[in-house]
Recover the amino acids of this structure.
């Protein structure tokens, strides 16, 4: 772990299995709630005035100083998570010792108005959270896209109708999907002024490449999800694969995409080389597993790929170690299971050291955040008493 180096851990939005969504229009590659438990949250509610203003006055701590009360002097703030839990968004500050042997998390509510909150994602600088919600009372039957500061407050509207938002790598623009016009991807500067980037039936799940030159997305033009890559400079798109479920993650170097494709009631994991110009899509490689795969997440060094495999009703986290880092040739792959509790372990997110993962674990209305060493398989609880977690994203130092 390199302390003091801020990293946008994951540009994708994390969410659970391919299942019917809370809102009917989230149909293609549906990224829905982790469980169907009650919406009552057991997380602590904010104290008076804690998240009631967007002002960043002197009483508000900075992210660098945000060490939860009770942490020993040997522990340091290493990062923050954003979690949609119940009917609110929460920030979870994480502090660990230098070896990550002991970590703790402290939560803070970011939103006051009860609503559906999904797909939260940190801005690249970690100062804002982008999310989708039915906050707008005038269009409460559809989702809109909103922004809130890292310490909470009144959200700002990015789009009154939209979903699946993602930041550009610079944090200056946002891409999101909307069902308007039959299906569109819209790009807008944070200050406003949206333009159409893609107009395809049921276009959804946009994911910006690390270099900002391409956007991967799913569309439904052929009756099943099609994964394509839009080359922004050329305004051209290439087809990557069919049967895409909406789980997409770019490799750190932006030369490959990991995604899941469904057939015969099973989602399989693929790695696809993707060049920087149209016509440079390489041949896909399938990562073999017994279960149905979701939530692929590249390690920061690009040498490993974490994912969830559901087999015989149980969900566990696996890690694939790859024998190559770029190019079109197939990788030698070593897949190992790293969790094995009787409940579900899902939504893995790498720490920058490529040696630890944070994830959600639980069942029914009892969930927790855990951290695991991928070599020793030693896990620890960061935060518990979660009842209905949906999505999670991280900004780790």
């Amino acid at each position: 772990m390199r302390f003091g180096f801020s990293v946008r851990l994951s540009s994708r939005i994390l969410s659970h299995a391919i299942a019917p969504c809370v809102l009917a229009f989230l149909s293609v590659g549906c990224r829905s709630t982790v469980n169907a438990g009650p919406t009552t949250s057991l997380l602590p509610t904010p104290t008076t005035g804690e998240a009631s203003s967007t002002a960043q006055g002197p009483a508000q701590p900075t992210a660098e100083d945000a060490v939860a009360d009770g942490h020993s002097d040997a522990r340091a703030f290493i990062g923050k998570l954003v979690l949609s839990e119940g009917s609110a968004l929460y920030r979870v500050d994480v502090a660990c010792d230098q070896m990550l042997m002991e970590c703790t998390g402290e939560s803070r509510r970011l939103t006051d108005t009860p609503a559906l909150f999904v797909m939260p994602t940190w801005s690249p600088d970690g100062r804002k959270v982008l999310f989708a919600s039915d906050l707008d009372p005038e269009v409460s039957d559809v989702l809109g896209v909103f922004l809130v500061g890292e310490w909470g407050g009144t959200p700002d509207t990015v789009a009154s109708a939209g979903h699946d938002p993602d930041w550009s790598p610079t944090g200056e623009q946002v891409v999101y999907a909307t069902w308007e016009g039959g299906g569109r991807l819209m790009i807008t500067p944070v200050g406003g002024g949206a333009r159409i980037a893609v107009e395809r039936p049921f276009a959804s799940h946009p994911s910006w490449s690390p270099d900002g030159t391409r956007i991967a997305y799913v569309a439904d033009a052929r009756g099943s999800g099609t994964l394509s890559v839009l080359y922004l400079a050329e305004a051209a798109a290439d087809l990557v694969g069919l049967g895409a479920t909406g789980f997409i993650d770019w490799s750190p170097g932006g030369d490959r995409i990991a995604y899941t494709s469904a057939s015969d009631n099973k989602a399989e994991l693929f790695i696809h080389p993707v060049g920087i110009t149209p016509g440079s899509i390489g041949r896909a490689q399938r990562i073999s597993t017994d279960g149905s795969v979701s939530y692929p997440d590249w390690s920061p060094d690009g040498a490993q790929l974490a994912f969830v495999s559901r087999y015989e009703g149980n969900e566990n986290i696996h890690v694939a170690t790859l024998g190559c880092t770029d190019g079109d040739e197939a990788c030698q792959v070593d897949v190992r299971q790293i969790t094995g509790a009787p409940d579900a372990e899902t939504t893995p997110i790498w720490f920058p050291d490529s040696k630890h993962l944070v994830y959600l674990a639980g069942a029914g209305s009892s969930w927790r955040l855990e951290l695991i060493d991928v070599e020793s398989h030693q896990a620890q609880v960061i935060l518990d008493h979660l009842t209905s977690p949906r999505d999670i994203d991280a900004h780790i130092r």
Remarks:
- The radius of gyration is 20 Å.
- The longest strand covers residues 76-85.
- The chain has one domain: 7-52+69-396.
